[in-house]
Amino acid sequence: MSFNTISVIGLGYIGLPTAAMFASRKKKVIGVDVNQHAVDTINRGEIHIVEPDLDMIVHAAVTEGFLKATLTPEPADAFLIAVPTPFKNSNENQGDSSIPEPDLSYIQKASEAIAPVLKKGDLVILESTSPVGATEQMAEWLAQARPDLTFPSPNQEHAGDNIDVNVAHCPERVLPGHVVRELVENDRVIGGMTAKCSARAVELYKTFVQGECVITNARTAEMAKLTENSCRDVQIAFANELSIICDKLNIDVWELISLANRHPRINILQPGPGVGGHCIAVDPWFIVSKTPEEAQIIHTARKVNDAKPQWVINKVKLAVADFLQANPTKTAKDVTIACYGLAFKPDIDDLRESPALNITKQIAELHSGSVIAVEPNIDELPSKVNTLQLSKFETAKNTADIHLLLVDHKEFKGISVKSNYLIDTKGIW
Ligand code: SAJ
Questions:
Q1: 202, 166 in Cβ contact below 8 A?
Q2: For this structure, is 279 an active site residue?
Q3: pLDDT digits over 66-123, tens only?
Q4: Distance from Cα 33 to the centre of ligand 1, integer Å
Q5: Phi and psi at residue 168, in whole multiples of 5°?
Q6: Position in ligand 1 atom list of the atom nearest CA 273
Q7: Are 194 and 159 in contact (CB under 8 A)?
Q8: Could you give the CA distance from residue 188 to residue 182 in angstroms, rounded to a whole number?
Q9: How many CA atoms lie within 13 A of 10 on its CB side?
Q10: Are 29 and 67 in contact (CB under 8 A)?
Q11: Residue 204: which H helix or E strand, with range?
Q12: Per annotation, catalytic residue among 27, 197, 213, 225
């Protein structure tokens, strides 16, 4: 049975591009989101997120009638759930208060929303990055809501054709900024709760995925996604720890890493002001919270990366103290600090969970003089950070006493700021 109508629940950074990809292959796609603004924007053929090339694809899909957005789920042959899996508020966390617990309430709400329109033969896929066991939990929520249908249960990998609704976990693995290309080209991990579930999911993704669809079970697929991001987090923590050690030993960490990387089996990542975004700094906690005793390295890496912003702030404090010692007629009020880059990584405009933005905000709160922020990828700061002033690069370069490079945007490469009071967290100046 082929998939004539596909529904994507959650039209954010993953759901909307995925919906648009199916629609671009002339499938009828129903996108569902709880956000009225997102629904209205998409139905006008526009997008509410920033992702290169996505606007054209969504515009074509909507005007040709293959994609529509709605607040309420409608019947479809396949449902892909791409909703957030954040942490619980710290006061809701149980157990060790230093380990955040995943919040599956968005998945639960999405399951409850689609349950009434499910029918025999449908496929439900969880795409959201999730702790191990979340797909089984989702199947249980669906089964509770629809006792008239049968769903797979755990340890039923070899169950036959007697299951009405197939369930799988197929984690997204695309890099923000390259989503449109990576959705098509990346290999896809397909974790069906049964062999039939996996086969149906492969059939669905083959609509647009050119990479290989590799079959496993749901729990391994969940862990695979968490492993990928935890591996990157651990590697970045290694680089960040090296940068702190080298600073103490008066060694240039960038030179050190480039020398070590000449070894044929060494590939150290780059240090920075901390790890940001919605994935690498979050997903390792899903492993730590399930297996706190066992996940020692993963937990330590999180702590090392989370501590890096404070280390950078301390460096700025020391630079201000040095500046005042060299300029005894001045006070802190007379000192201007310029922060270059606010996004969570280079060449994007995404400020969410950005260490660069948090560092700049904290410096602005602590410092009695002026703080200038330079971010070439945005024209206006969001209202919640309107205490900061955006400035042009040249103005910052010419007026600031202390310079703090936080993001290696392409606009900052090839030019350089020379100063005795320069803190370059990315090693480009
Ligand atoms: N970073 C460093 N040093 C480095 C590389 C990155 O400090 O050498 C920092 C970045 O500046 C940023 C953070 O790490 O603050 C995360 O950036 P990223 O480019 O490593 O990753 P994301 O969060 O944009 O996307 C990741 C990707 N995962 C992996 O590369 C293993 C992507 O493929 C996933 O789909 C995405 O997480 C996700 O949605 O889970």
A1: no
A2: yes
A3: 999 999 999 999 999 999 999 886 555 555 558 999 999 999 999 999 999 999 999 9
A4: 26
A5: -145, 160
A6: 7
A7: yes
A8: 10
A9: 21
A10: yes
A11: helix 195-205
A12: 225
Closest alpha carbon to 342 in 263, 404, 290, 398: 404
Q: Are 339 and 363 in contact (CB under 8 A)?
A: yes
Task: Give the Cα-Cα-Cα angle 45, 51, 57 (nearest 5 degrees).
Answer: 40
Fold match between domain 5-211 and domain 227-424: yes
Least confident of 39-43, 86-90, 205-209, 396-400: 86-90
Contacts of 54 by beta carbon, 8 Å cutoff, 6+ apart: 16, 17, 20, 47, 179, 180
Using one digit for the tens of pLDDT, what is the confidence trace for 211-259?
A: 999 999 999 999 999 999 999 999 999 999 999 999 999 999 999 999 9
Domain 227-424 CATH assignment equals 3.40.50.720: yes
The amino acid occupying position 121 is G
Residue count (the chain): 429
Angle, helices 105-114 vs 134-145, to 10°: value is: 40
Domain range annotation of the chain: 5-211, 227-424
Q: Does pTM top 0.85 for this prediction?
A: yes
Q: 316 CA distance to ligand 1 centroid (A)?
A: 25
Among residues 213, 279, 339, 397, the one annotated as catalytic is 279
**Across 19-63, where does the E strand assignment appear?**
28-32
CA distances in angstroms from 17 to 4, 46, 90, 132, 204, listed in the order given: 18, 12, 32, 25, 15
3-state helix, strand, coil in the chain (%, to 5): 40, 15, 45
Just give the CATH number of 5-211. Answer: 3.40.50.720
H-type helices in 64-173, by residue range? 105-114, 134-145
CB 45 within 8 A of CB 59: yes
How far apart (Å, rounded) are the C-alpha atoms in residues 370 and 385? 15
Distance 23 CA to ligand 1 centre (A): 28
Query: 5 near 66, Cβ under 8 Å?
Result: no
226, 244, 279, 407: which to mutate for ligand 1, most atoms within 8 A of CB? 279
The answer to whether the beta carbons of residues 100 and 134 sit under 8 Å apart is no
Q: pLDDT for 382-401, tens place per residue?
A: 777 767 889 999 999 999 99
Report the Cα 237 to chain-centroid distance in Å.
Answer: 17
Q: Answer yes or no: is pLDDT of 411 > 70.
A: yes
240 lines ligand 1 (CB under 6 A): no
